[in-house]
Each structure stands twice: as C-alpha cells, then as structure tokens.
Write a structure and sequence with these properties.
The structure holds two protein chains of two kinds. Chain A is α+β, with helices and mostly antiparallel strands. In chain A, strands 4-5-1-8 form a four-stranded antiparallel beta sheet. Chain A has a two-stranded antiparallel ribbon with strand order 2-3. In chain A, α1 packs across α11, α6 runs antiparallel to α10 and α8 runs antiparallel to α9. In chain A, 22% of the residues are buried. Chain B contains ten helices and seven strands. Chain B has a seven-stranded mixed beta sheet with strand order 3-4-2-5-1-6-7, sandwiched between helices. Chain B is globular and about 50 Å long. β9 of chain A pairs parallel with β7 of chain B.
C-alpha cells in the first residue's frame, strides 16, 4: 500500500478520529468541571550536600567510601520525601493536619534538578498556610531523615566490618590451636627447620661414610701388600748376611736381584734369541739366584751360625699390625655412621607429613592474621570517615516555602485537552484502519480482487458523461493492443 | 439506434472517465486474447442490478469502435433488456434462431456502428435453460464465433437461475460483474464457486459503479493539457 491508500482509508472514515478526538476532549473538560478546585501549593528548595551522602561499601575485608552520582542521590531524596515516615512527621509537626496526611488533604511532592544538587519540595493543601508549613516541615524532616539514613548506613557498615573481623579472629585462634597441637604432637617447634637440619646431617653422614669406605679399601690393599711382604721376608738373618762378609746374600737382596735379572731377561728376549750368550748367561744367573734363595729359606736354624731377627720383617710386621688396627677402627666408625643415618632417616620420615600440615596451618594463620590486621585498619578508617560524614550536614534549606496560589490551571487543562485530542485522533485512526481491514465489502478494485481472488479487468466508475459533448472517436479508431 | 444515455455510451461516446474505463476494459480483454485466443465472452453477475447488461452493451460498443466485429447477444431470456436499452424494433432473435424459425442473418440487427451487431432475445421462451443448453444454441454460437471477432453474451445473474451456468459452458471465457458498495461478498463468492463447478473459465471481474479516485481524473488530465 502506498501513502495515498492510507490516506484514502482514513478519509473514508474521517469522522472516526474526529469524533473520538472531540469526545475525548469533552470528557477532559467535563472531568475538570466536576472536580474540586485545585488546592494551594507551597514550594521550597533543599540544597543537598552530596559529599555528606557518601556510601561505605564493605567487600572482601576492605571498606571503600563511594560518592554516588547525583541521579542516585536524587532518587533517594525523592524516596525519602515521599516516604510514610516523612508524611507522619509532617502530620505531627504541622497543627491542623491531623494524624494522617492524606486525610488532611495534604500531598507532598518533589522535583529534582538535573544538574545541580537541589530538590524542590512541594506541598499541596486546601489552605495556603498549611501548605507552607507542610513544605517546610517536610524539608526539615527530609534533612533529618537523610542524616539518620546516613548514620544508619555507616552503623551497618561498622557492624559488617566488626562481624568480619570477629570471624577472622576466630579463624586465627583456631589455626593457632591447631598449630600448637601439631608442634606438641611431633615434638618440634618448626618441623621444616628440623627436617632441613636432618637432611644436612644425612648428607654429612653420607659423605663421611664414603670417606670411610675409600679409606677401608685403601687400608685393606696396603694390608694385603704388607701381608705378602711379611710372608716373603725371612724372619731371621745370619750375622754374615747382616754384616755382608761373603756369606749368602740376604733373601731380600736375592729377591731384588732376581727380579732385576728377570726384568733384564725379558727385555733381552725382545731383541735377542734364546740362544744368545747374554740370554743364556742371564738364565744361568736366575737359576743361581733361585737356588740361593731356596737354600736360605730352607736352611735349618742350626745351620746358621748366628740368628738374629730380621729388622725388615719386624718393620713390615709392625706396619701390618698398624693396618689391621686401622681397619678395625674404620669398621667401628662405619657402624656408628650407619646407625646415625638410620636414626636420622627414621626421624625424617616421621616429620615429612607434619611439614605439609605445618605449612598449611602457617599459611592459614598468616592469612587470617592479615585479614584481622586489614579489618582493624578498615574499622579505624571507617570510624574516621563516619565521624567526618556524620558531622557534615547532608543539606540545608536553600529556600523557604512560600505559598503559591494555584489558579484554574488553564495551562494544564489546555495540555490535557491537547493530549485528549491527539489520543482520540490516534484511536479513531486505528479504529478506521481496523474497520477497513475487517470490512470485506467491495469498495474498489483492490478490495474486490483481494476478496474474490480474481483479476480485475475493469473498474467502471459512476457515469460522469457530460451531455452534448462528444469525443472524436470513430469506428476508424485503431484496435487496442 | 445506439442512443447515448447517462450510462450508455452510444455510437459517438463523449470523452469522460466512464468511457475511459471501458477502453481500459477493452485493452485488458484484448491483452487476454493475445495470450490465449478466444472469441466468446459471457457477461454475468452474482445478483440482479450489478450492471451486467450495461457493461455488456458498452463493452460491445468500445470493442466495435476499435473496428472489431462484435456480436452482442441478449441471452437473458427471462428479463431481456438489451433490446429495450438500444430501442431495437421487434423481430426475431436468439429464441427464434434456436427454434429454427429464423436464420442468424435475419435475427442479427445492425447498429449505427458498422462492426457491431445485436442478437436480441426475440420471442419469449419459458424453458430458457433447456434452450440455452441445446445443440441449436451451441451451433448458433459457433456460427457467430466464426463470423465475429468477439461474441458477447449477456446472461441472467448466477445466483438467481441456472442459465448463466449453462451458458458459461458454451463460451470460452466468463466475465463477472460486481457492483461496488458496502455489501457482503458472499453472493459473489458463491457465484464464482458455481461457475467453477459448471466448468466456466473465469477471465476476471469488472467492478462496477466505484467511486472516482482522488488521483488525476480524465477531466483533470485534459484540462491540464
């Protein structure tokens, strides 16, 4: 549909919007005529101190003081002005109203300035004096109510902080008790410190044990060597041997010479054949030295003219005993080290679970203590802020109420008539459209096509043929396409 | 013979919106003929007084003015109106042709427009539906379709008698005339349903007697020139 079609629909039933508009306006006029006359009104202004209406907020153990926007404060002031408490207070303060504000014919209202923190308080009453008194009483009661509201707000915040602080203190106490129980149960002041000391001692013991193991290995090797040397060394020597007077060589000298010749022989065999004279000579010398050594070793004591203990053997024997003593000492030390290690390990295993619980309890205690500290600080801040806010005035009467005689309200009446005309016209238009769409009768070709569902080949208007006027159409006209 | 009245165009119709509307109807029918060839058209309506006869006569005139050979047949045997509307002299008509008492040439009446012939009802006949459904009627209609570019039949209303249903089966297309006004569309819907049951091929509808639009009218157009 085009705009002209909407216009046609409205024009067909133009009396609908017109009639409804006129009827609505008439109703407004009649209601105006039968209603009682407007009461007197008085208006005063309150200047609001927004800084004094800051709001404490307690969250997560912290307190913040927020200064809300003027719109939020304005809504609160409006609620206070129109609250039943203010109505009761006004009724109590203003004589002549009675117990109930509504029954006394007094209504309170408020208008909030958009940009400036000013609230206009309006009171309507049958008499101007009562309206003025009610407005002034409402302003005073509103300021008192706002102050009381603010004090209540800080009191609640303090209670909330105190409750949180109490809960945190209880948590500190509980954590402390559990910590003390853990300390007494494990017999330690701080399991972590003891565990660390035990670990250090274990490391030291392990080091000492390693040293002892190496020392024992070394001593054992030396002991084996000394034992071999003692077994090889003859226990006694002859005087001749000692004095070197042509007697048989001492066994030690024989062994040394024998070893040297064997080494020379091995070296010589690398360069010479076994038949070489030098090699043969060396072999002969080796045989001779072996016979001498055998003879000295197997010679009976009585065949030796004079026997004296061999000093070499004695020295070796003494060293051997020293080594054996050292071995025993090392074994004892190792036993001590292993016993200490086992003891420390047992204590460590006992303390391991306690460390985790100790850490958890310590963290819990620390957190609770920090919370307590924070809440104590928050409480101090809140108290300081509360003193500052409560001492500040939440507002003051900027303008005393003065009576405003309300006239016949012609402007308001005109506005209401205008609104009634507009609403009536809109409703009438909607009614016209509604009737158009529910009306299935044919008014034009569009409605006929819509209702009958057949194409409209022709729309014949009512005849407007003039008399005595003809057109130049003749039988010679071309056929239409 | 083709006198001009307030609703009848006459042989030399004046320039007006009423005439222009019939020209538009002629154009639309010609366009339909170009899409699918047909040469017989039944004009009927849902109820008496819708303007069937006026539309049929004026349509015949405007088609004939376009140099098309047109036969206008008064098939409303119960209330024949074309003869009276065009002030035709008494003579043989459709009933006589169907009864074999007159030939088609004798019954067809020539008018002031050379290409427009009128076949009046002729003698009265009580068994209208039977006559209209007879073979003779079918033959006569076939004869006229061969001789004319368009045969227009004016019929009784659909809702009143069965003649329109019978005729709609003989012709190739049917045009339903409805009168604009604040009335219920029920008769028109029933008429369309009846015609569809009868096997009619509905060409479309003609809305008669509508209020002139607010847009530029014929007179405004010519005064604008």
């Amino acid at each position: 549909m085009e705009f002209v079609d909407y216009y046609r629909i409205i024009r067909e039933r133009v009396w609908f919007p017109v009639l409804l508009a006129v009827l609505s306006a008439a109703v407004v006029v009649v209601l105006r005529a039968i209603r009682p006359p407007e009461p007197s009104a008085a208006t005063g202004a309150l200047s609001i101190n927004t800084a004094a209406l800051r709001r404490p907020e307690v969250a997560d153990g912290a307190v913040s003081i927020a200064e809300p926007e003027w719109g939020v404060i304005a809504r609160e002031v409006t609620r206070v002005v129109q609250s039943p408490q203010i109505a009761r207070e006004v009724a109590r303060r203003v004589p002549g109203i009675g117990a109930d504000l509504t029954a006394g014919g007094v209504t309170l209202g408020s208008e909030v300035a958009r940009d400036t923190p000013v609230v206009r308080v309006t009171a309507r009453a049958a008499e101007g004096e009562i309206a003025v008194a009610a407005a002034n009483a409402a302003m005073a009661a509103t300021l008192e109510g706002l102050g009381e509201l603010q004090r209540e707000r800080f009191r609640r915040a303090s209670e909330a902080v105190a409750q949180q602080s109490s809960a945190a203190t209880r948590r500190v106490s509980a954590a402390t008790q559990r910590l003390e129980g853990l300390r007494s149960r494990y017999g330690t002041r701080d399991p972590n410190e003891e565990v660390n000391a035990l670990k250090a001692e274990l490391v030291s013991l392990a080091t000492r044990r390693s040293e002892l193991v190496w020392e024992r290995v070394s001593v054992t090797a030396r002991e084996q060597m000394l034992l071999a040397a003692v077994e090889e060394q003859p226990r006694y020597e002859t005087i001749e041997q000692v004095q070197g007077t042509g007697g048989p060589l001492p066994p030690s000298e024989i062994g040394a010479q024998l070893n040297a010749v064997i080494a020379d022989l091995q070296e010589a065999l690398k360069r010479r054949t076994p038949r070489h004279p030098t090699v043969i000579e060396m072999q002969r010398r080796i045989e001779e030295l072996r016979r001498q050594a055998e003879a000295v070793r197997e010679a009976p004591a009585e065949t030796v003219s004079t026997r004296i203990p061999s000093p070499v053997w004695a020295t070796l024997e003494g060293q051997l005993w020293d080594m054996r003593l050292t071995t025993v000492t090392i074994g004892a030390q190792m036993q001590w080290v292993e016993a200490q290690t086992a003891e420390k390990r047992a204590r460590l295993d006992q303390l391991q679970p306690a460390t985790m619980e100790y850490d958890r309890l310590s963290a819990e205690l620390t957190a609770a203590q920090q919370e307590v500290d924070g809440l104590e600080k928050a409480m101090a801040d809140l108290s300081r802020q509360a003193e500052a806010v409560v001492e500040a005035e939440v507002g003051e009467v900027q303008e005393e109420a003065s009576e405003v005689a309300v006239g016949r309200g012609l402007r308001r009446l005109a506005l209401r008539i205008g609104a009634a005309l507009m609403c009536g016209a809109i409703l009438g238009g909607m009614l016209a459209f509604f009737l158009h769409y529910v009306d299935l009768s044919f008014k034009d070709e569009e409605s006929a096509q819509r209702v009958l569902g057949q194409p409209v080949l022709g729309a014949i208007p009512r005849s407007d043929m003039p008399t005595g006027e003809t057109e130049a159409e003749s039988p010679g006209e071309q056929a239409a396409p | 013979m083709l006198r001009q009245t307030d609703t009848l165009l006459g042989a030399r119709p004046p320039g007006c919106a009423y005439f222009e509307a019939f020209r538009a109807l002629r154009t639309n029918i010609a366009a339909a003929q170009e899409k699918e060839r047909f040469s017989s058209l039944l004009i009927t309506g849902a109820r008496p007084g819708d303007g069937k006869t006026t539309v049929a006569v004026n349509l015949g005139i405007v088609v004939a003015l376009a140099r098309k050979k047109v036969a206008l047949v008064d098939a409303d045997l119960r209330h024949p109106a074309i003869g009276e509307m065009l002030e035709l002299p008494p003579g043989p008509g459709l009933v006589d042709v169907c009864n074999g008492e007159a030939s088609l040439d004798d019954a067809l009446v020539r008018t002031d427009i050379e290409t427009l012939c009128v076949l009046p009802t002729g003698a009265t006949w009580r068994m209208a539906a039977e006559l209209l459904g007879s073979t003779e009627m079918s033959d006569a209609l076939g004869d006229m379709r061969e001789r004319f570019d368009l045969v227009i039949l004016d019929s009784p209303p659909v809702g009143a008698v069965a003649d329109a249903g019978v005729l709609s089966r003989l012709v190739e297309r049917t045009l339903l005339v409805v009168r604009a006004g604040s009335r219920s569309p029920e008769p028109e819907l029933r008429a369309l349903q009846s015609l569809e049951y009868a096997g009619a091929r509905i060409l479309g509808i003609v809305v008669n007697d509508i209020l002139p639009r607010d847009s530029m009218t014929y007179q405004q157009y010519y005064s604008y020139r």
